[in-house]
Amino acid sequence: MNLLTLTETQGRLRLGKVRIWQLTASGELPSVKIGKRRLIDEADLARFIDAHREGNGEVGGNSGAGEVIETSPAPGRRAIGSRHVQR
Which CATH number fits domain 1-55: 1.25.40, 3.30.379, 3.30.70, 3.90.105? Predict the structure, then answer.
């Protein structure tokens, strides 16, 4: 088992920090928490990539291109359009 940091995972997927956090928080990209560190098993990352290959016959197999993610504003904030504004 080879565990990767979120920064290493970002580099391999060429995605931003926020998107990696969204994927791990939703469970779409499995992770383990050891102490304060969140780590990704390299085998889970490979399965995630395989599941998102184009032409694999699965729904959503476009690696997130053009995907819209609905989020709720943090406590004390209200949503305005696609931004969250502090009250």
Answer: 3.90.105
